[in-house]
Specification:
By secondary structure, this protein is α+β, with helices and mostly antiparallel strands. The protein has 4 helices and 2 strands, in the order H-H-E-H-H-E.
Length: 85
């Protein structure tokens, strides 16, 4: 009986927190696909220009583009395109 209680106490947090740890990401597509889909579905295109060594771009990626509200807003309302300048 004690082993069962210990097992439940050990496994409960694993199942509880693993579902909340789901990471949503922006579904970036190519500009060509975005143009085609924008005409077909009458939806706007969001273009994100970035540079690999840009500290502001890195900060944007680490703080803003991982926020679940922002990710959900972009994925549901735009065809997102990421372009390296």
């Amino acid at each position: 009986m004690n082993r069962l209680i210990v097992l439940i106490l050990v496994l409960a947090p694993v199942f509880t927190f693993s579902q909340g740890a789901q990471k949503l990401e922006i579904d970036w597509i190519t500009l060509e696909k975005a143009k085609k889909y924008a005409k077909k579905y009458d939806k706007n295109i969001l273009i994100y220009f970035y540079k690999k060594d840009c500290p502001y771009c890195d900060e944007m990626n680490k703080e803003i583009l991982i926020d679940l509200t922002v990710v959900d807003l972009i994925n549901n309302n735009f065809f997102p395109v990421k372009i390296d300048s």
